[in-house]
Amino acid sequence: xxxxxxxxxxxxxxxxxxxxxxPVRRVYCVGRxxxxxxxxxxxxERDPPFFFLKPADTLQLVSEGETAEHPYPPRTGNYHxxxxxxxxxxxxxxxxxxxxxxxxxxxxxxxxxxxRRDLQDEAKRxxxxxxxxxxxxxxxxxxxxxxxxxxxxxxxxxxxxxxxGTERQRGDLSEMIWSVPEQVALLSTYFELHPGDLIFTGTPxxxxxxxxxxxxxxxxxxxxxxxxxxx
Length: 231
Ligand code: MN
Known about the structure:
Layout: E1 12-14, E2 21-23, E3 27-31, H1 35-40, E4 50-54, E5 59-61, E6 67-70, E7 79-81, E8 83-89, H2 98-101, E9 105-112, E10 115-116, H3 117-125, H4 131-134, E11 140-142, E12 146-147, H5 148-151, E13 158-163, E14 166-172, H6 180-190, E15 198-200, E16 208-209, E17 215-220, E18 224-230
Parallel strand pairs: 3-15, 5-11, 6-18
Antiparallel strand pairs: 1-2, 3-4, 7-10, 7-16, 8-9, 8-15, 9-12, 13-14, 13-17, 17-18
Bound molecules: manganese (II) ion.
Manganese (II) ion (MN) binds near residues 82, 84, 200, 202 and 203.
């Protein structure tokens, strides 16, 4: 049997400082996971977390040290940055206990959950699905993975985003409402998780729009930095 079309490429993240790579299965995202950002979006910070997905082919792989060209998507006039820590699962499971959930994480990267905020706001208002806001092509830029075996499991450290050299977002990983192990444990009650799954773990406050010609630098202390110019 032959594939009747060219096989779609499977996205894979490079492992920092190595020729190895991490093939990606699914991209899960958590909403409103930093207190100040939950407040700026009008939510109660004690709400339980909620999840959504981006298609894995929305990943835009960005090498550190390069300035990647990031295409401004169609059908939006309010395209927002959200800098996030990305956790990559090396082991899956169902109903994973929170006490051991951290050991399922293979490594970490810095990512952006780029969002057509106008379309997301419209979807919220009309009680429609979020994909038109959250799943634009190239809407998940991500850097190289750092294995937990090398950097550990970062539970604190600055997470920042600059636009044209001006800081727009700043938070600390310790300000997450739901920790990475808590996210893994909870998500595994909804889905069987698998090696290759990514979790975008939420963004600190300060989200805002970016325009064509601007340059974004997303950075997580100890995890890496990526730079993209909006084209
Ligand atoms: Mn987000």
